[in-house]
Amino acid sequence: MNRAGYRLVDLPDAMRPWRDRPVKWENASLTTGTYHLDANGVYLYYPDGATSGYDHPVGQCQFGLGCLASYRTEPDPARRETFLTRARAQADRLIGQHVEARGAWWFPYPFSYANPSHPGVDYQAPWYSGMAQGEALSLFVQLAQVDAIPAADRDRYLAAADATFASLQALDDGTPWAVNIDSAGYLWIQEYPGPTPGSGDYTYNGFVFAMFGLYDYATLTGSQPAADLYDACATTIARYYPLLRNTRWHSFYCQAHRVPAPTYHQHHINLFRQLHWQTGSPDFADMTDRLVDDYPAPGVSGRVAFEAGEHTLYRFDTAASGAWTAAGGDVELERQTVTFSRDTAASASMRRRIQGRGIYCRISDGPYTGWWVGESWSTAYLRGVHLTTIYRPPRTLTFPGGNVPIAAYRVTDDGTVTSIKTVAFPSPSNAPTDRRAVVNGRAMFQITAGGLTGYWVPASAVTIDSAPAVG
């Protein structure tokens, strides 16, 4: 299998896998809904209002990992205990329901499933998922690290992790299987393994979530085979990123069907950001930046600054909230031209890419409520610092030579510019940066050393490292 040499980086707890998906307290004891807890606190799937629930391994793993994330930060002792109890209930259920085959533990789905948008994803119970295998590995490893759990139980969870890791070493030359090597030598963890060797949906998000289990296991145990598998997985994701990316729109859900995935695009952004942290490699940071620019998270609001002069406003066929819909497709419905005699501003409820166009802001107060304006610095833009991506380790940006003047800005969170410095260098000059954000409508990097410490520089004015940090 192909391996580029990606290395695992030890991280602060807050940046480790699953810390960004805590379970809210009000969701820790759900007793109604399609997914809720049974009398034993086990997260089950209740389809179509059924009274009997089914085990859902990915759901149980994610609920358990989310409870652990909340356990780590919850200040109330009673709530902390509940979160830990919930996490353990999921792990214990998985252990109790596991199937042993091929020298490994597997976690079956006991219900049949078919995805109408993905031909071939059509399973009769029981069936298995590489995503579940990897997430169960994370759950067992993370529980094995909780000091409040008795030592004998921590040992039990670590043994479960060992047996689960073995499933990710089993290729598609037997059943069940969740891992295969494609014809070009790249290793895949299949969220939806197909009925024949090498077949599957080649789903991106499930693959990366499963990788987090390898990260957790390798960093806890020092397992070189787990580190090597992670390296192979990271190599695959980097190689096939161009097929995941859908330039200037939602990224694709899987390689097999190439269906744009509005509900998964932000997951992809978060997952690639974590791959950057876990490997320390700037290529994954660069991939993250491109996904952010393709379709930035639309849940951003604030104040739009308008420069004095003429502006074109639009109405598009969207949901009532302004969200994109497949039926509407952001088709232009009407436009108007307005002129402001002086600089002004208006509230905006949403900033997002309009299909086939650029980034637009939806006005939410005044006479132009419901109209959209295209974002273009400095004529119209959303004020403030938004959509920040933290780089760890810092990246290196390069100012061009030739004495090209470049303005750098010190900016408050609300977009107020407090200082501007213009610099020019006879030869290319480097500077470190630890973050990227959309600042007053432009992608910018914040500099962390030298005379420009704390200043933001437009991404369009500099270059930044993007080669893999491997070997």
Q: So what's the oligomer here? A: single chain
Unreliable parts: none
Shape: globular
Mean pLDDT: 97
Terminal CA distance reads 16 Å
The share of residues in extended strands comes to 15-25%
Can you list the strand order of the major beta sheet? 12-11-15-14-13-10-16
Q: What is the β-strand count?
A: 23
Question: What characterizes the major β-sheet?
Answer: 7 strands, antiparallel
Please count the helical segments: 8
Using the CA coordinates, give the radius of gyration.
24 Å
Protein structure class: alpha+beta
Helix content: 25-40%
Description:
The protein is of the alpha+beta class. The chain contains eight helices and 23 strands. β8 and β9 form a beta hairpin. α5 runs parallel beside α7. The longest helix is centred in the N-terminal third of the chain and has 21 residues. The protein is globular. The chain starts with 34 loop residues before the first strand and ends in a 7-residue tail after the last strand.
